[in-house]
Design goal:
This protein is of the alpha+beta class. Helices cover 26% and strands 28% of the residues. It has helices at residues 2-37, 76-84, 164-167; strands spanning 40-43, 50-56, 67-70, 99-106, 110-113, 117-119, 122-123, 145-146, 151-155, 170-171, 175-185.
């Protein structure tokens, strides 16, 4: 009987020590977990400010200049990007997390990639494609051309961003909504 009594007392002490931190973690994580179902996302990549973002449906169709959440299509290029660590895992097709990017071109606009990206002959600021990634691996760039109907061309001004300069236009059907900052920090 003494052995069982000591075991219960010891177990009780352990639970008291563990339960407060576990409860605190649960309280902090609950809004994050349920927030995903409510359209909230956490951005931990440097392409846009770090923090909490919300997906908002547009009043009309998506247009040039819209900052959006988009699911990368499940293509061999995206699989390689995932394997290299450019993409995080998530709930999009292919197992990828949504990206936050700006739509810089839509259907029928002409893309040329040289020293900078040009859209219909106009240079896009902060768009010089990199030759190598951060680990010295070569990067394939999109060959250019006309954005097909139902597709968008995406960009981020962050120098290390993995965007349409490398993977080309993506289906507009993969756009989840506008990206609206809720609580962010730009280092």
């Amino acid at each position: 009987m003494t052995f069982l009594h000591d075991q219960r007392r010891q177990t009780s002490r352990i639970w008291r020590r563990v339960s407060l931190p576990v409860a605190l973690i649960a309280v902090l994580l609950a809004p994050i977990v349920t927030g995903g179902a409510l359209g909230y996302r956490i951005n931990l990549t440097p392409s846009e400010p770090l923090g909490i973002w919300r997906i908002q449906m547009p009043e009309g169709s998506y247009k040039v200049g819209d900052l959006v959440f988009v699911c990368p299509p499940p293509t061999p290029t995206m699989r390689e990007a995932f394997d290299r660590g450019y993409l995080r895992s998530g709930l999009c097709p292919g197992g990828y997390a949504p990206l936050i990017k700006t739509i810089v071109a839509v259907s029928s606009q002409r893309i040329k990639i040289d020293r900078l990206v040009s859209i219909d002959g106009l240079a896009l600021p902060h768009s010089a494609p990199a030759q190598l990634d951060g680990r010295g691996r070569s990067l394939r760039r999109f060959s250019g051309g006309t954005v097909p109907t139902g597709y968008v061309f995406l960009h981020s001004g962050f120098i290390g961003s993995f965007d349409s300069r490398y993977f080309g236009p993506v289906p507009a059907s993969g756009v989840l909504g506008l990206a609206k900052a809720v609580l962010t920090y730009a280092p």
